[in-house]
Write a structure and sequence with these properties.
By secondary structure, the protein is mainly β. It has one helix and twelve strands; from the N terminus they run H-E-E-E-E-E-E-E-E-E-E-E-E. The longest helix is centred in the first third of the chain and has 16 residues. The mean pLDDT is 86.
């Protein structure tokens, strides 16, 4: 037979656990009904000012804590499928549009749209900014490119044959 101390300890633990609650983390669900460009979200970043930038299948959304501002083809985005979003050290926002190019946004304005070489078909999959190298890396279906000013430079070893090699993540 179990000791009464052990049974009392189990009962006290059980009843105390009914009244103890963990911390609730704030959580909000946003949809197109709230102003999000699309419910199919591909990427999210937070810029230096605290705004959320959300890449969707129908454009880029900026959330300021109250409302969404959308950047879509009608506003100058090169395409509607924003697969990757990244910021640089100057708080410029880069939006990689699959099969259409790269949009650069400064102060809520699309200031440049860049395109990869024709054989790469602009299939931008992932963007990553290296703070230490001050360099934007662009993952595509044909390898990794470095963005230098407005030129894409393929990062490869000498004598590498050109081939399809999708880059889905860069860290």
């Amino acid at each position: 037979m179990k000791s009464p101390f052990f049974l009392n300890l189990v009962l006290i633990s059980f009843f105390c656990s009914l009244f103890v609650h963990g911390q609730d983390k704030p959580f909000a669900l946003f949809t197109e009904d709230d102003g999000l460009a699309d419910n199919d979200v591909r990427d999210i970043i937070k810029d230096k000012e605290g705004y959320l930038w959300i890449g969707t299948s129908n454009g880029l959304s900026k959330y300021d804590g109250q409302k969404f501002t959308n950047f879509q083809v009608q506003q100058g985005m090169p395409g509607k499928w924003v697969w990757s979003v990244e910021k640089d050290d100057k708080n410029r926002i880069y939006a990689g549009c699959f099969s259409k190019g790269l949009a650069i946004i400064e102060k809520d304005k699309i200031v440049k749209v860049l395109h990869l070489e024709a054989n790469v078909k602009n299939r931008i999959r992932k963007l990553h900014y290296s703070d230490s190298h001050k360099l934007m890396l662009v993952g595509t279906d044909y390898g990794i490119y470095a963005l230098k000013d407005t030129t894409f430079v393929l990062l490869s070893y000498p004598n590498d044959p050109p081939q399809k090699s999708s880059v889905l993540s860069i860290t």
